[in-house]
Hints:
Transmembrane segments: 21-42
Low-confidence stretches: none
Strand order of the largest sheet: 1-2
Structural class: mainly alpha
Keywords: Membrane, Transmembrane, Transmembrane helix
InterPro entries: DUF6090 (IPR045749)
Distance between the termini: 41 Å
Amino acid sequence: xxxxxxxxxxxxxxxxxxxxxxxxxxxxxxxxxxxxxxxxxxxxxxxxxxxxxxxxxxxxxxxxxxxxxxxxxxxxxxxxxxxxxxxxxxxxxxxxxxxxxxxxxxxxxxxxxxxxxxxxxxxxxxxxxxxxxxxxxxxxxxxxxxxxxxxxxxxxxxxxxxxxxxxxxxxxxxxxxxxxxxxxxxxxxxxxxxxxxxxxxxxxxxxxxxxxxxxxxxxxxxxxxxxxxxxxxxxxxxxxx
Length: 241
């Protein structure tokens, strides 16, 4: 192709057809530039396609992670709820000085249950590496950053603080007050009747029940709704691809 164009230029020059040569040269330049622009457009189109494919795969990975988070939240809510119910049973039994029976042993074993939320963040970490600009939807990008960088962080703070307190305080109390203890299964008091007047033990149970009922569980439920909102936004993006 280059040789072909060169022969034409040489022929025009040899025939002293300079004006035609000039027109031809300009046309050749335009043709070359057009070819370069077309090649750049094709290259840009390929790059945009790759970025869009990466965005879609990132959406799918984040959605899968968020679904796991919802499952974790729901499991934790269930166990915190069991702890609240068992706490109420024991507090009522101690207040009313109910005679000891084996069911109380099961309830005593469930009170310390304190599962920790562990978010699945692999997809979000990959997004941070690839750059947040990968997400073309500004609102979705802001929601994701708010969830992982603020809301999940706050949830971790309140649950970790509760876990550390319960692990230490319930550990001491159960070591002192229980003859046998197996989480969720059995906790038999050394002297059940002495617990009627053990205000420290009652306060410990009341404190955990209040925190689970009024702080942990509501926070988890709020997070579930926020995560569901983001999943819906992701689904909308995927349906528009």
